[in-house]
Design goal:
Elements (H helix, E strand, L loop, with lengths): L2 H13 L50
Length: 65
Amino acid sequence: MKILDIQRDLEESLTGLSTSTLPPTLEGLRHLPVYDRNPQVSIRNLDKGREVREDADASYFDPDR
């Protein structure tokens, strides 16, 4: 899996927020104005503030950071 795959998964998830089943702690996400838009996600390096290459291996992405 590549970074591009993660970005696309996140974009699709954001697009489907209005119809997704969410746990109560995440219900606030329904207020994001993405239902009529085409969300675009880019994963960035926290330390350097620049985009991670889309062809980089997904193991580079650490969601806990």
